[in-house]
Amino acid sequence: MNSIRIYRGTNQIGGIVTEFLSEDHRILIDFGANLPGTKDAQIKDDELVEMVFGDKEHPRGADAVLVTHYHGDHVGLKDRIPEDVDMYIGDTAKEILKAIATRVDTMNKLNGNNVNPEVPLINRMKGYWKNGTPKDFSGIRVTPLLCDHSAIDAYMFLIEMNGRRILYTGDFREHGIPGTETFENTIKNNVGKIDILVTEGTMIFRTKEVKDSAVKDEDQLGKEAYKIFNAHKENVVLVSSTNLDSIMEFYHATPSDKAFLCDPYQAEIMKLAIEARNSYYPDKYSYKKTIYVLCKEEYDGCMKNLKDIINPNNGLQSFFMAKPEIYMEQGFVMLARPNRNPKLKVGEFEKRMQQMKDPFITYSLWEGYLEGGKAPDKAITDFVRGRDDESHMKKLHTSGHAYVETLAKLMDMTNPEVIIPMHTESAKAFKTIPQFAAHADKIHVLHDGEVFTLKTEVSR
Questions:
Q1: What is the DSSP letter of 296?
Q2: Which of 44, 220, 327, 365 could bond 215 through an S-S bridge, CB–CB 3.0 to 4.6 Å?
Q3: Residues 315 and 348 in one domain
Q4: Can you tell me the mean pLDDT for 123-146?
Q5: Distance between CA 187 and CA 201 in Å, rounded?
Protein backbone atom coordinates (compact mmCIF):
# COMPACT_ATOMS: atom_id res chain seq x y z
CA MET A 1 0.00 0.00 0.00
CA ASN A 2 1.11 3.57 -0.71
CA SER A 3 -0.36 6.07 1.72
CA ILE A 4 -0.13 9.14 3.93
CA ARG A 5 -1.16 8.99 7.59
CA ILE A 6 -1.11 11.81 10.11
CA TYR A 7 -0.94 9.97 13.41
CA ARG A 8 -1.50 13.17 15.38
CA GLY A 9 -1.96 16.77 14.33
CA THR A 10 -5.01 16.83 12.07
CA ASN A 11 -6.95 18.95 14.53
CA GLN A 12 -4.41 20.36 16.97
CA ILE A 13 -1.32 22.53 16.88
CA GLY A 14 1.90 20.70 17.70
CA GLY A 15 2.64 17.19 18.90
CA ILE A 16 2.68 15.96 15.34
CA VAL A 17 3.95 12.97 13.39
CA THR A 18 3.18 12.07 9.77
CA GLU A 19 3.88 8.84 7.93
CA PHE A 20 4.60 8.30 4.23
CA LEU A 21 4.30 4.61 3.36
CA SER A 22 5.44 2.92 0.15
CA GLU A 23 4.79 -0.82 0.27
CA ASP A 24 7.04 -2.08 3.11
CA HIS A 25 9.03 1.15 3.50
CA ARG A 26 8.09 4.26 5.39
CA ILE A 27 9.50 7.57 6.52
CA LEU A 28 8.15 9.72 9.32
CA ILE A 29 8.19 13.49 9.44
CA ASP A 30 8.56 14.94 12.93
CA PHE A 31 7.94 13.22 16.23
CA GLY A 32 6.65 15.95 18.51
CA ALA A 33 5.42 16.11 22.06
CA ASN A 34 2.11 17.75 22.91
CA LEU A 35 2.52 21.45 23.59
CA PRO A 36 2.32 22.50 27.25
CA GLY A 37 -1.24 23.52 27.96
CA THR A 38 -2.73 21.35 25.21
CA LYS A 39 -6.27 20.84 26.43
CA ASP A 40 -8.03 17.51 26.09
CA ALA A 41 -5.44 15.94 23.80
CA GLN A 42 -7.15 12.92 22.26
CA ILE A 43 -3.87 11.06 21.90
CA LYS A 44 -1.38 11.11 24.76
CA ASP A 45 2.35 10.98 24.06
CA ASP A 46 2.72 7.38 25.29
CA GLU A 47 -0.20 6.27 23.12
CA LEU A 48 1.34 7.98 20.11
CA VAL A 49 4.67 6.19 20.53
CA GLU A 50 2.94 2.80 20.62
CA MET A 51 0.77 3.66 17.60
CA VAL A 52 3.81 4.61 15.53
CA PHE A 53 6.50 2.18 16.68
CA GLY A 54 4.50 -0.59 18.35
CA ASP A 55 5.50 -2.33 21.56
CA LYS A 56 8.26 -4.79 22.49
CA GLU A 57 6.33 -7.75 21.13
CA HIS A 58 5.22 -6.00 17.94
CA PRO A 59 7.90 -3.39 17.06
CA ARG A 60 7.65 -1.34 13.87
CA GLY A 61 10.64 0.13 12.11
CA ALA A 62 11.08 3.07 9.76
CA ASP A 63 13.61 4.05 7.11
CA ALA A 64 14.03 7.48 8.69
CA VAL A 65 12.53 10.21 10.83
CA LEU A 66 12.88 13.64 9.19
CA VAL A 67 12.67 16.57 11.61
CA THR A 68 11.41 19.83 10.13
CA HIS A 69 12.92 22.02 12.90
CA TYR A 70 13.96 22.07 16.54
CA HIS A 71 10.74 23.11 18.32
CA GLY A 72 9.59 20.61 20.95
CA ASP A 73 6.17 20.07 19.38
CA HIS A 74 8.02 18.64 16.37
CA VAL A 75 10.99 16.85 17.98
CA GLY A 76 10.04 16.55 21.64
CA LEU A 77 9.66 12.75 21.56
CA LYS A 78 13.05 12.13 19.94
CA ASP A 79 14.12 9.98 22.90
CA ARG A 80 11.31 7.54 22.06
CA ILE A 81 12.54 6.84 18.54
CA PRO A 82 14.19 3.39 18.30
CA GLU A 83 17.98 3.47 18.09
CA ASP A 84 18.07 1.66 14.74
CA VAL A 85 15.97 4.38 13.05
CA ASP A 86 17.98 7.18 11.40
CA MET A 87 17.04 10.72 12.42
CA TYR A 88 17.73 13.73 10.17
CA ILE A 89 17.72 17.44 10.97
CA GLY A 90 19.35 20.57 9.52
CA ASP A 91 23.00 21.11 10.50
CA THR A 92 22.39 24.46 12.21
CA ALA A 93 19.18 23.18 13.79
CA LYS A 94 21.20 20.29 15.22
CA GLU A 95 23.73 22.67 16.80
CA ILE A 96 20.96 24.78 18.31
CA LEU A 97 19.20 21.67 19.56
CA LYS A 98 22.48 20.54 21.11
CA ALA A 99 22.86 23.89 22.90
CA ILE A 100 19.32 23.49 24.25
CA ALA A 101 20.04 19.90 25.29
CA THR A 102 23.26 20.94 27.04
CA ARG A 103 21.31 23.42 29.13
CA VAL A 104 18.60 20.83 29.89
CA ASP A 105 21.21 18.24 30.90
CA THR A 106 22.95 20.76 33.17
CA MET A 107 19.69 21.77 34.85
CA ASN A 108 18.66 18.15 35.35
CA LYS A 109 22.00 17.39 36.96
CA LEU A 110 21.82 20.42 39.26
CA ASN A 111 18.27 19.55 40.29
CA GLY A 112 19.10 15.90 40.92
CA ASN A 113 16.75 14.63 38.21
CA ASN A 114 17.57 11.03 37.33
CA VAL A 115 16.99 11.17 33.56
CA ASN A 116 19.03 10.19 30.54
CA PRO A 117 21.11 13.03 29.08
CA GLU A 118 19.88 14.48 25.80
CA VAL A 119 23.17 15.48 24.17
CA PRO A 120 24.15 11.90 23.12
CA LEU A 121 20.73 11.60 21.48
CA ILE A 122 21.29 14.80 19.48
CA ASN A 123 24.70 13.54 18.40
CA ARG A 124 22.92 10.56 16.81
CA MET A 125 21.12 12.84 14.37
CA LYS A 126 22.35 13.24 10.81
CA GLY A 127 22.38 16.49 8.86
CA TYR A 128 20.36 16.84 5.69
CA TRP A 129 21.91 16.26 2.33
CA LYS A 130 22.14 19.29 0.03
CA ASN A 131 19.16 21.63 0.11
CA GLY A 132 16.98 21.19 -2.98
CA THR A 133 18.53 17.82 -3.85
CA PRO A 134 16.51 14.57 -3.69
CA LYS A 135 17.42 11.42 -1.77
CA ASP A 136 15.72 8.08 -2.28
CA PHE A 137 14.44 6.03 0.67
CA SER A 138 13.49 2.75 -1.02
CA GLY A 139 10.94 4.28 -3.34
CA ILE A 140 10.17 7.41 -1.32
CA ARG A 141 12.07 10.31 -2.91
CA VAL A 142 12.59 13.24 -0.54
CA THR A 143 13.85 16.74 -1.34
CA PRO A 144 14.47 19.01 1.68
CA LEU A 145 13.66 22.68 1.05
CA LEU A 146 14.91 25.34 3.45
CA CYS A 147 12.06 27.61 4.50
CA ASP A 148 11.27 30.63 6.66
CA HIS A 149 10.03 29.97 10.21
CA SER A 150 10.61 31.43 13.68
CA ALA A 151 13.02 28.52 14.15
CA ILE A 152 15.89 29.02 11.73
CA ASP A 153 17.09 26.14 9.54
CA ALA A 154 13.54 24.81 9.17
CA TYR A 155 12.48 22.64 6.22
CA MET A 156 9.53 21.70 4.09
CA PHE A 157 9.74 18.55 1.96
CA LEU A 158 8.88 17.64 -1.60
CA ILE A 159 8.02 13.93 -1.53
CA GLU A 160 7.66 11.82 -4.67
CA MET A 161 6.15 8.34 -4.43
CA ASN A 162 3.80 6.17 -6.45
CA GLY A 163 3.99 8.69 -9.27
CA ARG A 164 2.71 11.49 -7.02
CA ARG A 165 4.36 14.77 -6.05
CA ILE A 166 3.50 15.80 -2.49
CA LEU A 167 4.54 19.01 -0.71
CA TYR A 168 4.71 18.74 3.07
CA THR A 169 5.08 22.30 4.38
CA GLY A 170 5.90 21.79 8.05
CA ASP A 171 5.80 25.13 9.89
CA PHE A 172 6.55 28.02 7.52
CA ARG A 173 5.87 31.65 6.71
CA GLU A 174 7.08 34.40 4.34
CA HIS A 175 7.29 37.42 6.67
CA GLY A 176 10.55 36.64 8.43
CA ILE A 177 14.04 37.87 7.54
CA PRO A 178 14.30 35.52 4.49
CA GLY A 179 11.10 37.17 3.24
CA THR A 180 8.63 36.80 0.41
CA GLU A 181 11.24 36.54 -2.34
CA THR A 182 12.83 33.47 -0.75
CA PHE A 183 9.43 31.80 -0.32
CA GLU A 184 8.29 32.48 -3.86
CA ASN A 185 11.62 31.42 -5.42
CA THR A 186 11.56 28.12 -3.50
CA ILE A 187 8.05 27.26 -4.64
CA LYS A 188 8.64 28.41 -8.21
CA ASN A 189 12.09 26.85 -8.74
CA ASN A 190 11.93 23.71 -6.57
CA VAL A 191 8.28 22.74 -6.30
CA GLY A 192 5.96 23.94 -9.08
CA LYS A 193 2.77 22.00 -9.77
CA ILE A 194 2.05 19.25 -7.25
CA ASP A 195 -0.59 16.59 -6.70
CA ILE A 196 -1.06 16.80 -2.93
CA LEU A 197 -0.43 19.64 -0.49
CA VAL A 198 -0.10 18.76 3.21
CA THR A 199 -0.02 22.11 4.93
CA GLU A 200 -0.01 23.68 8.35
CA GLY A 201 -2.86 26.04 9.27
CA THR A 202 -1.85 27.50 12.62
CA MET A 203 -3.10 31.01 11.88
CA ILE A 204 -6.57 30.05 10.61
CA PHE A 205 -8.18 30.99 13.93
CA ARG A 206 -5.70 33.75 14.77
CA THR A 207 -6.57 36.29 12.11
CA LYS A 208 -7.70 38.79 14.77
CA GLU A 209 -4.27 38.59 16.41
CA VAL A 210 -2.66 39.49 13.09
CA LYS A 211 -5.12 42.32 12.49
CA ASP A 212 -4.58 43.80 15.96
CA SER A 213 -0.79 43.37 15.95
CA ALA A 214 1.44 46.44 15.77
CA VAL A 215 3.69 44.62 13.29
CA LYS A 216 3.14 42.20 10.42
CA ASP A 217 6.72 41.15 9.68
CA GLU A 218 10.16 41.04 11.29
CA ASP A 219 11.35 44.22 9.59
CA GLN A 220 8.47 46.19 11.09
CA LEU A 221 9.19 44.56 14.46
CA GLY A 222 12.74 45.93 14.40
CA LYS A 223 11.58 49.44 13.52
CA GLU A 224 8.95 49.52 16.28
CA ALA A 225 11.42 48.05 18.78
CA TYR A 226 13.88 50.86 18.05
CA LYS A 227 11.22 53.42 18.99
CA ILE A 228 10.48 51.62 22.26
CA PHE A 229 14.14 51.18 23.20
CA ASN A 230 14.80 54.86 22.54
CA ALA A 231 11.90 55.90 24.75
CA HIS A 232 12.90 53.82 27.79
CA LYS A 233 16.16 53.43 29.66
CA GLU A 234 15.57 49.95 31.12
CA ASN A 235 14.21 47.62 28.45
CA VAL A 236 13.34 44.00 29.18
CA VAL A 237 12.37 41.77 26.26
CA LEU A 238 10.39 38.55 26.64
CA VAL A 239 11.04 36.48 23.51
CA SER A 240 11.57 32.80 22.80
CA SER A 241 15.27 32.00 23.03
CA THR A 242 15.13 30.19 19.69
CA ASN A 243 13.13 32.82 17.77
CA LEU A 244 16.33 34.06 16.15
CA ASP A 245 14.82 36.40 13.55
CA SER A 246 13.12 38.45 16.26
CA ILE A 247 16.16 38.31 18.54
CA MET A 248 18.41 39.64 15.79
CA GLU A 249 15.91 42.41 15.10
CA PHE A 250 15.95 43.39 18.78
CA TYR A 251 19.75 43.26 18.81
CA HIS A 252 20.09 45.47 15.73
CA ALA A 253 17.38 47.81 17.04
CA THR A 254 19.30 48.49 20.26
CA PRO A 255 20.32 52.19 20.19
CA SER A 256 24.03 52.96 20.12
CA ASP A 257 23.92 54.54 23.58
CA LYS A 258 22.45 51.43 25.24
CA ALA A 259 23.94 48.03 26.07
CA PHE A 260 22.55 44.78 24.69
CA LEU A 261 22.34 42.05 27.36
CA CYS A 262 21.56 38.35 27.45
CA ASP A 263 22.58 35.29 29.46
CA PRO A 264 25.27 32.77 28.35
CA TYR A 265 22.72 30.35 26.90
CA GLN A 266 21.13 33.02 24.73
CA ALA A 267 24.57 34.33 23.71
CA GLU A 268 25.58 30.85 22.58
CA ILE A 269 22.42 30.53 20.45
CA MET A 270 23.03 33.95 18.88
CA LYS A 271 26.63 32.99 18.06
CA LEU A 272 25.48 29.83 16.30
CA ALA A 273 22.83 31.72 14.35
CA ILE A 274 25.17 34.48 13.21
CA GLU A 275 27.81 31.98 12.09
CA ALA A 276 25.21 30.05 10.08
CA ARG A 277 23.37 32.94 8.44
CA ASN A 278 25.87 35.78 8.12
CA SER A 279 26.70 34.96 4.51
CA TYR A 280 22.99 34.86 3.58
CA TYR A 281 21.59 37.82 5.55
CA PRO A 282 24.59 39.96 6.62
CA ASP A 283 22.43 43.04 7.22
CA LYS A 284 20.55 41.23 10.02
CA TYR A 285 22.69 38.25 11.04
CA SER A 286 25.92 40.04 11.97
CA TYR A 287 27.71 41.40 15.03
CA LYS A 288 26.55 45.00 15.20
CA LYS A 289 27.75 45.89 18.68
CA THR A 290 29.08 44.26 21.82
CA ILE A 291 26.89 41.59 23.36
CA TYR A 292 27.15 41.76 27.13
CA VAL A 293 26.71 38.40 28.84
CA LEU A 294 24.92 38.22 32.19
CA CYS A 295 26.97 35.76 34.20
CA LYS A 296 25.62 34.59 37.53
CA GLU A 297 27.73 36.13 40.29
CA GLU A 298 30.20 37.17 37.56
CA TYR A 299 31.37 33.58 37.10
CA ASP A 300 34.01 33.78 34.37
CA GLY A 301 33.40 30.17 33.28
CA CYS A 302 30.17 31.22 31.60
CA MET A 303 32.28 32.90 28.90
CA LYS A 304 34.27 29.80 27.93
CA ASN A 305 32.66 29.43 24.47
CA LEU A 306 32.40 33.17 23.81
CA LYS A 307 35.77 34.75 24.67
CA ASP A 308 37.52 34.54 21.32
CA ILE A 309 34.70 35.58 18.98
CA ILE A 310 35.82 38.64 17.01
CA ASN A 311 33.54 41.20 15.38
CA PRO A 312 34.87 41.43 11.81
CA ASN A 313 33.44 44.94 11.47
CA ASN A 314 35.71 46.46 14.13
CA GLY A 315 38.19 43.73 15.10
CA LEU A 316 37.00 43.75 18.72
CA GLN A 317 35.61 40.97 20.89
CA SER A 318 31.93 40.37 20.27
CA PHE A 319 31.08 39.14 23.78
CA PHE A 320 32.01 40.64 27.14
CA MET A 321 30.89 39.84 30.65
CA ALA A 322 28.22 42.32 31.73
CA LYS A 323 29.09 44.67 34.59
CA PRO A 324 26.06 46.22 36.34
CA GLU A 325 27.88 49.50 36.96
CA ILE A 326 28.12 49.93 33.18
CA TYR A 327 24.73 48.91 31.86
CA MET A 328 22.61 50.18 34.76
CA GLU A 329 24.04 53.64 34.21
CA GLN A 330 23.89 53.87 30.42
CA GLY A 331 20.63 51.99 29.87
CA PHE A 332 20.08 48.66 28.17
CA VAL A 333 18.02 46.15 26.20
CA MET A 334 17.93 42.85 28.10
CA LEU A 335 16.65 39.54 26.76
CA ALA A 336 14.95 37.80 29.68
CA ARG A 337 13.33 34.51 30.56
CA PRO A 338 10.81 33.90 33.35
CA ASN A 339 11.77 31.54 36.17
CA ARG A 340 10.97 27.89 35.48
CA ASN A 341 13.15 26.40 38.20
CA PRO A 342 10.85 25.00 40.91
CA LYS A 343 13.67 25.27 43.45
CA LEU A 344 13.97 29.03 43.00
CA LYS A 345 11.31 31.25 44.54
CA VAL A 346 12.72 34.19 42.60
CA GLY A 347 14.48 33.67 39.28
CA GLU A 348 17.67 35.38 38.13
CA PHE A 349 15.88 37.78 35.79
CA GLU A 350 13.22 38.52 38.38
CA LYS A 351 16.03 39.51 40.78
CA ARG A 352 17.46 41.85 38.17
CA MET A 353 14.01 43.36 37.60
CA GLN A 354 13.82 44.16 41.31
CA GLN A 355 17.02 46.19 41.01
CA MET A 356 15.67 48.32 38.17
CA LYS A 357 13.94 51.65 38.72
CA ASP A 358 11.32 51.54 35.99
CA PRO A 359 11.71 48.59 33.58
CA PHE A 360 9.64 48.52 30.42
CA ILE A 361 8.69 45.10 29.03
CA THR A 362 8.53 44.37 25.32
CA TYR A 363 6.39 41.24 25.11
CA SER A 364 7.28 39.23 22.00
CA LEU A 365 5.50 35.92 22.60
CA TRP A 366 2.12 34.53 21.64
CA GLU A 367 -0.70 36.35 23.45
CA GLY A 368 -2.25 33.01 24.39
CA TYR A 369 0.36 32.56 27.13
CA LEU A 370 -0.90 35.60 29.04
CA GLU A 371 -3.55 35.54 31.72
CA GLY A 372 -6.93 34.96 30.10
CA GLY A 373 -5.30 33.50 26.99
CA LYS A 374 -5.89 30.08 25.41
CA ALA A 375 -2.88 28.48 27.15
CA PRO A 376 -1.82 30.74 30.06
CA ASP A 377 1.74 30.11 31.22
CA LYS A 378 2.16 30.70 34.95
CA ALA A 379 5.86 31.53 34.64
CA ILE A 380 5.07 34.23 32.08
CA THR A 381 2.02 35.61 33.86
CA ASP A 382 4.00 35.82 37.12
CA PHE A 383 6.85 37.61 35.36
CA VAL A 384 4.66 40.38 33.87
CA ARG A 385 2.21 40.67 36.77
CA GLY A 386 1.91 44.28 37.89
CA ARG A 387 3.60 45.50 34.71
CA ASP A 388 1.18 44.32 32.05
CA ASP A 389 -0.48 47.72 31.57
CA GLU A 390 0.21 50.03 28.62
CA SER A 391 2.60 52.24 30.56
CA HIS A 392 4.87 49.31 31.44
CA MET A 393 4.47 46.77 28.63
CA LYS A 394 4.07 46.70 24.85
CA LYS A 395 3.11 43.63 22.80
CA LEU A 396 5.39 43.36 19.81
CA HIS A 397 5.28 39.98 18.11
CA THR A 398 5.16 38.39 14.68
CA SER A 399 3.93 34.86 14.19
CA GLY A 400 6.26 32.06 13.20
CA HIS A 401 3.52 30.70 10.95
CA ALA A 402 2.03 31.51 7.57
CA TYR A 403 -0.79 34.04 7.43
CA VAL A 404 -3.95 33.11 5.53
CA GLU A 405 -2.78 35.17 2.54
CA THR A 406 0.45 33.15 2.33
CA LEU A 407 -1.43 29.85 2.48
CA ALA A 408 -3.69 31.05 -0.35
CA LYS A 409 -0.64 32.07 -2.39
CA LEU A 410 0.90 28.63 -1.85
CA MET A 411 -2.29 26.95 -3.07
CA ASP A 412 -2.35 29.16 -6.17
CA MET A 413 1.33 28.58 -6.96
CA THR A 414 1.24 24.77 -6.56
CA ASN A 415 -2.34 24.16 -7.79
CA PRO A 416 -2.71 20.79 -5.99
CA GLU A 417 -5.44 18.27 -6.67
CA VAL A 418 -5.82 17.57 -2.94
CA ILE A 419 -5.14 19.79 0.08
CA ILE A 420 -4.76 18.11 3.48
CA PRO A 421 -4.74 20.55 6.43
CA MET A 422 -2.87 19.80 9.67
CA HIS A 423 -1.19 21.60 12.58
CA THR A 424 -4.42 23.57 12.99
CA GLU A 425 -7.16 23.90 15.58
CA SER A 426 -9.83 23.32 12.95
CA ALA A 427 -9.08 21.61 9.64
CA LYS A 428 -12.76 21.95 8.66
CA ALA A 429 -12.42 25.73 8.78
CA PHE A 430 -10.18 25.59 5.69
CA LYS A 431 -13.32 25.16 3.59
CA THR A 432 -14.84 28.39 4.93
CA ILE A 433 -11.87 30.74 4.46
CA PRO A 434 -12.74 33.27 1.70
CA GLN A 435 -9.13 33.39 0.45
CA PHE A 436 -9.26 29.61 -0.14
CA ALA A 437 -12.53 29.69 -2.11
CA ALA A 438 -10.91 28.73 -5.41
CA HIS A 439 -9.52 25.57 -3.78
CA ALA A 440 -12.35 24.70 -1.36
CA ASP A 441 -13.43 21.59 -3.28
CA LYS A 442 -9.89 20.16 -3.04
CA ILE A 443 -9.69 20.29 0.75
CA HIS A 444 -9.65 16.81 2.28
CA VAL A 445 -10.02 16.73 6.05
CA LEU A 446 -8.45 13.75 7.83
CA HIS A 447 -8.76 12.48 11.38
CA ASP A 448 -5.78 11.43 13.48
CA GLY A 449 -4.62 7.99 12.41
CA GLU A 450 -6.74 7.91 9.23
CA VAL A 451 -5.02 6.46 6.16
CA PHE A 452 -5.06 8.47 2.92
CA THR A 453 -4.36 5.99 0.12
CA LEU A 454 -2.38 7.05 -2.93
CA LYS A 455 -4.19 5.51 -5.87
CA THR A 456 -3.65 5.86 -9.61
CA GLU A 457 -6.17 8.66 -9.48
CA VAL A 458 -5.86 10.96 -6.46
CA SER A 459 -8.78 10.67 -4.03
CA ARG A 460 -10.91 13.70 -3.31
A1: G
A2: 220
A3: yes
A4: 96
A5: 18
